[in-house]
UniProtKB/TrEMBL annotation:
One GO CC annotation: plasma membrane
Protein name per the record: IFM5 protein
Keywords recorded for this protein, A-Z: Membrane, Transmembrane, Transmembrane helix
GO biological process terms held by the UniProt record: bone mineralization; bone morphogenesis
Organism: Penelope pileata
Nuclease is among the record's keywords: no
UniProt key word Transmembrane helix: yes
């Protein structure tokens, strides 16, 4: 009897792996959008929507760890919606405000030029008299 180590037995390798069956549904765990929520909470907290998204993201992560995939998917969807609203509100509203300020300044400068032309005209004595 041979007791030398390591024992190596050379057997032909057979693959016992089976491919996924066409009827099997693989469940991908939902994303919790935690990084996006943290970013919205810290940098672009529009009406506290980033904080609400962060709360839903943490809940989604807890549900995912606990194994409740459906609740995690539902909470993840809410977190994504609040993140979209926070991002859109924090990006679109300042752009809209900037556009309004620029158009207001342009309109006021045009009014100022027109009024300067009106007040700079001099009325002579011949303009006031009837002929």
């Amino acid at each position: 009897m041979d007791t030398s180590y390591p024992r190596e037995e050379y057997l032909p390798m057979t693959s016992h792996k089976r491919g996924p069956s066409p009827t099997a549904v693989t469940s991908v765990p939902p994303r919790d959008h935690l990084i996006w929520s943290i970013f919205n909470t810290i940098y672009m907290n529009f009406c506290c929507l980033g904080f609400v998204a962060l709360a839903f993201s943490v809940k989604a992560r807890d549900r995912k760890v606990a194994g409740d995939v459906e609740a995690a998917r539902r909470l993840s969807s809410k977190a994504r919606c609040y993140n979209v609203l926070a991002t859109a509100g924090s990006v679109v509203l300042p752009l809209l405000l900037t556009a309004l300020v620029v158009t207001g300044v342009l309109h006021l400068s045009k009014l100022a030029q027109d009024s300067m032309g009106f007040f700079s005209s001099q009325f002579g004595a011949s303009d006031d008299e009837d002929k």
